[in-house]
């Protein structure tokens, strides 16, 4: 049941992007169409992510970052499989699988558009440059089977206060 809900929601969300890209492709080719429609996918993803990723105004807000993000899981768990990989004072890392948006785009042969959806995470991170650092080495939109979202506290001196990954 969860799989079908996930795919239905993904289809509803990205269907306008698929149609727009396919129509525009007729006139300018798929690569140019993706470059034109891609920023719309990023903007849409960023709007959705504002309901998940908590706002932070200063580095001290990171103390409640994980708790506030977990409060929003009820909204996202029907669409994603979310596991907390690491939860420490200065690091909060998630393992996320089954992105409905990327799965649908990939199934329609628009994997290059999936990358624009993933770009929404980086756009949110740009809004918090003094509060936390966002890292991701795997993303479904680039063909991986999962995304690893890592949020690290930024200290007053602008550095991350976490040990490098082992």
- Beta-strand proportion: 15-25%
Total beta strands? 4
Average pLDDT number:
90
What is the CATH domain class? Alpha Beta
Shape: globular
Ends apart, CA distance between termini:
38 Å
User: How does CATH name the architecture?
Assistant: 2-Layer Sandwich
Percent helix range: 40-55%
The largest pleated sheet is described as:
4 strands, antiparallel
Number of helices in the DSSP assignment? 6
Number of spatially distinct domains: 1
Poorly predicted runs of 5 or more residues = none
SSE run: HHHHEEHHEE
Radius of gyration: 17 Å
Q: By helix and strand content, what is the structural category?
A: alpha+beta
Biggest sheet strand order reads: 1-2-4-3
What is the fold named in CATH at topology level? Answer: Muramoyl-pentapeptide Carboxypeptidase, domain 2
